[in-house]
Design brief:
Elements: H1 4-10, H2 12-15, H3 25-43, H4 45-51, E1 56-58, H5 59-69, H6 75-84, E2 88-90, E3 95-98, H7 100-105, H8 108-117, H9 119-133
Antiparallel strand pairs: 1-3, 2-3
Helix pairs in contact: 5-9
Length: 135
């Protein structure tokens, strides 16, 4: 029979600090932004109806949004880092979808409450609406 410590040693994802905790601030901010754009609409019924949530965001739309928040970190570097570590997946049509790590990187209950009442979420979706209507 395995001891508790032996079992814990096999659960590296729960013991080790998540990769994104060591990343630059811009990358961590991007995770929150992407969570808000890709996962939050699936959780919020009102938003899902209003935005007809598709489960993806156009890469160009994200690049436009991210430029506002990033000064030193290039969007190309960021997307490469997030895709390499399965926080996002970019398909052949240049659409960004949630990767496995994006679901586990953010405490959904805490973020849902925050996003539901935040100015940030309203600004993100207003900016997204502007960029999609100008396309």
């Amino acid at each position: 029979m395995l001891s508790l410590n032996q079992i814990r040693s096999t659960l590296t994802s729960r013991i080790d600090e998540p990769l994104h905790k060591k990343w630059p601030e811009e990358a961590q901010a991007a995770i929150v932004i992407l969570w808000g754009l890709l996962i939050y609409p699936q959780l919020d019924i009102d938003l899902r109806k209003q935005w007809n949530a598709k489960g993806y965001i156009e890469k160009a739309h994200f690049e436009n949004l991210f430029e506002t928040y990033s000064e030193d970190y290039s969007t190309k570097q960021l997307l490469s880092l997030l895709e390499k570590n399965d926080y996002i997946r970019i398909d052949e049509e240049q659409r960004i979808q949630s990767g496995t790590q994006l679901f586990s990187a953010v405490h959904a209950l805490r973020m849902y409450r925050f996003f539901r009442s935040s100015v940030l979420s309203r600004q993100l979706f207003q900016a997204l609406q502007k960029t999609s209507s100008s396309s």
